[in-house]
Amino acid sequence: MSEPTMTPEEFRETTARITDSVRRVIDGKEHAIRSALVVLLAEGHLLVEDVPGVGKTMLARALAASIDADVRRIQFTPDLLPGDVTGVSVFSPANRVFEFTPGAVFANVVIADEINRSSPKTQSALLEAMEERQVSVDGRTHPLPDPFLVIATQNPLEMDGTYALPEAQLDRFMMRMSMGYPDAEAEQLMLRQRDTHNPLADVRPVVTLDGVARLIDFAHRVHVAPPVEAYAVALAQATRTHPDLQLGASPRATLQLVRAAKAWAALQGREFVIPDDLSGLARAVFGHRLIPTRHAAASRRSGDPVPRIIDQIVQHVPVPVAGG
């Protein structure tokens, strides 16, 4: 193994600069900022789901603006076409050949705003890009920039003009989170600070693209002991046999849970993953992938039954003990 390209002190200082930069725009949402940073370090993709007006797009734009990288925003609408996302081949009369014109997905950070307002066909244009970091058009494959991160926002399905994301699309997202409403103090601060000025206009990059690559490399090097790996697998397998679930977590979900846990551990100043990292991230990583049975969905008394089911699984799966 090659020598690490970043020291723990450099990692801590750089991630702190990114966090402080985003915090200037997003008030009182530390969990949201930290989740977005985890996904960035773990080379995943983030789905932010909540009602309009709580700062979903603002979070994505603030994180993107804090990185000195190519950023594109795609406003998903009912008339958006797959070619608008991936790109198209256009005939060039001068050269008498078809030339590829890259779509909006060709960027380091892609903000897919209100992704569930487009048809499933257009949503699916992101499948290959998010999993393989490439786009295939007319039989030719075009690699995407590295690093590559998709931050998608969506409104609850109950709202008018929305489409459900296909299961294959949901499985590409490492984590799903909800912003939630700000507390009274944060909302009052927002009124004072944003009356005549948008703080997003003041955000400047605090880390280069090379710096992001070094952060990712540092997080990848976090150690995961075999018993902790087995615990991650046990959590995933428990979702596949739970009587209230008709679709459990995929192997991709297991892999992304471990990657997210490594990034989380690095942000906590540790060089190794502990079981609490996995169980603490289980809701965010597994929640959007699990589908309850009709009986569980029909008998729910207070909202989505999936978080409760995940909590049950975490409570019942044996936790590895150090030295055991």
Describe it.
- This protein has 324 residues and is an alpha/beta fold.
- It folds into 2 domains: 221 residues, 3-Layer(aba) Sandwich (Rossmann fold), CATH 3.40.50.300; 103 residues, Helicase, Ruva Protein, domain 3.
- 43% of the residues lie in helices and 16% in strands.
- It contains 14 helices and 13 strands.
- The strands form 5 sheets. The protein has a 5-stranded parallel beta sheet with strand order 3-6-9-1-10. The protein has a two-stranded parallel ribbon with strand order 2-11. It has a two-stranded antiparallel sheet with strand order 4-5.
- A hairpin with a 2-residue loop joins strand 7 and strand 8.
- Helix 12 runs antiparallel to helix 14.
- The longest helix is centred in the C-terminal third of the chain and has 17 residues.
Features of the shown structure:
single chain, 324 residues, alpha/beta, Rossmann fold, Helicase, Ruva Protein, domain 3, 2 domains, five-stranded parallel β-sheet, 13 strands
What is the fold's blueprint, element by element?
Blueprint: H1 8-23, H2 30-41, E1 46-49, H3 56-65, E2 67-68, E3 71-75, H4 82-86, E4 87-92, E5 97-102, E6 109-113, H5 120-123, H6 127-132, E7 134-137, E8 140-143, E9 149-154, H7 167-170, E10 175-177, H8 184-193, E11 207-208, H9 209-220, H10 226-241, E12 245-247, H11 251-267, H12 275-286, E13 291-292, H13 294-298, H14 306-316
Parallel strand pairs: 1-9, 1-10, 2-11, 3-6, 6-9
Antiparallel strand pairs: 4-5, 7-8, 12-13
Helix pairs in contact: 1-2, 2-11, 9-11, 10-11, 10-12, 11-12, 12-14
